[in-house]
Amino acid sequence: MDPRTGLPVVGMVGAGQLARMTHQAAIPLGQSLRVLAESPQDGAALVAADVVIGTHTSYEDLLAFAAGCDVLTFDHEHVPTELIRSLAEAGHAVYPGADALVHAQDKAVLREALVQAGIPGPSWSRVSTVDHLVAFGAQHGWPVVLKVARGGYDGRGVWFLSESAAASHVLDGDRAYIVEQRVPILRELAVLVARSPYGQVSVWPIVQTVQRDGICVEVIAPAPELSEEVAGVAATLAVRLAAELGVVGVMAVELFETGHGLLVNELAMRPHNSGHWTIEGSRTSQFEQHLRAVLDYPLGTTTMTAPWVVMANLLGGPDGGMGIDERAHHAMAQWPDVKLHLYGKSSRPGRKLGHVTALGSDLAEVRARAQAAVSYLHQGGHP
Amino acid sequence: MDPRTGLPVVGMVGAGQLARMTHQAAIPLGQSLRVLAESPQDGAALVAADVVIGTHTSYEDLLAFAAGCDVLTFDHEHVPTELIRSLAEAGHAVYPGADALVHAQDKAVLREALVQAGIPGPSWSRVSTVDHLVAFGAQHGWPVVLKVARGGYDGRGVWFLSESAAASHVLDGDRAYIVEQRVPILRELAVLVARSPYGQVSVWPIVQTVQRDGICVEVIAPAPELSEEVAGVAATLAVRLAAELGVVGVMAVELFETGHGLLVNELAMRPHNSGHWTIEGSRTSQFEQHLRAVLDYPLGTTTMTAPWVVMANLLGGPDGGMGIDERAHHAMAQWPDVKLHLYGKSSRPGRKLGHVTALGSDLAEVRARAQAAVSYLHQGGHP
Prior knowledge:
Two copies of one chain form a homodimer. With 383 residues, the first copy, chain A, is of the alpha+beta class.
């Protein structure tokens, strides 16, 4: 409990843009997010009052950080499960707990849990040799999708392999892999759900996510032309999964929509890129909801604030010779109704530097507006 | 320019709730508000990364604070004009500047400017003796309103005086006073306007403010049953005043609606309590707009996000034996669609501890919801 405010203290391990936006949401709740940052330059470390420098793989650092917090939560899924268990055994409230979080850390563990729960996913197998990989492809068809079980993200640690590429692929003997059937998909969807320790659950409208080179570039809320039936299936699936895995906080379930129903692709147990639209687009943002959930506060309404909300990621680009200040200036002049979010990061090609959100009643117009604004910010000029 | 982000640095003198909410709005702009706080316990000092402890009446402190900023602005109007002038002469960008800000500091200067601009206000006079006060009342009718020219707020420094009370009132020879005619008013309105150094101006819809004991307790946006004509007069008046006074940043113009039109009551040149509703209720909040204005960025859209938005102030109260954490918990359970804003302050009766915002399409329901939530938070139970 913070004696200055009479409110519990939330500590977030990791200080990237998710922690940065969580701190923003913490302020109206009377909170000030405590962050464990790798570096004082981390996005959240630039804006939060209570920053501890340390490493998420050091138990010593984690324990020292936890000492000032009533609840611990995460900006990413990279804290080793055994350290989370040790923190819990030392009496710290950690949300999500290790037994839940492992499903967002290890794709093999997730696939096993989905099979056990009867929740559909692509055909899959653990794989440790090229022979096994080739046999899986022979059974399920080519190409296949090879994934490191742990540590991949934004397209890294994922390979789409033809038969000949599979036969010559080199598996790292120190890593665990899974192989999945490459299913023909209509599009990708995501369901965002929040769950409190008490067991209260809330769901936002199902969204469509658009990827490019394995990186999310656009999120459309709600997913266009999604039948009520499929939306209901997706929401029910996410709520059930959150309860079965014992999730506390926000969980994003990435789904494939196929001609034969929905398949679970991946999970994230934290605020997620597919939910950034909720900052302006929902009465309660995913960041506020994550805080409410880990604090075991009652959850907020997830009603949308506009018929259509589109979020577009700002990736580092050529910049057109202009600094971000000048590009932001121009974008604000041209699109006074597009909301800009900058993460305080230096630019590198392909790096997520921020995002924009547009809202309105005409989907085509809203998408075009978000894309035009983010394209200008990315390129420093029109394409 | 912050070398870490490539963006200019805004410094705010004062670290109360206005600075706290401005920091919240600064985060998505890629900014981190630098605040000059009296104490590390100040509301904004609890949440901002870049806090300097100092006094706003010390030129030394102001100058040291300004050294790290590209633009200086204010959480309050208490910085002496001559210090602002010295900062500007030393080459610092200070918004609003001294020539504008003095109108929010000194009620006599404001009244003179309004007379000169032909903008209506109540009849008034500078007053320095009881004889003068009594003569004013004899001419304009009793009671009269006596105000200290500088430093009064939230009902302090304001007296409603009958003839007998005026005759025995003691004027402090060290202070300047004005006396105003007490006009019969229908209600109080406020217009919020933002202006950039370039001269771009934006206005939010006119709101109704409800006061109790001289303190704002509720703001209704837009002001109910306000004719388009009167709304237009109010907006035009505010835009014209902002331009004539050379305001940069947000300015709130408090108005009396009377049977004979609108009269200007007071000004504030900063984000203002009458604009807290804009955080959720407008596409661009007053805090974001203030930052955009002082940074000379193009201003954002001020479209409302719902037909009706009601803000109710949370004042310190009896608390019903519950801490704020428990009261917030209960309020969130009962009103999942009311947005809570806590300022990180300890409770004292009558102190502004936070506010709530409710939105919707039925004004009576929205008002009732906001009032019920704030009443629960205030009393720790239903009345």
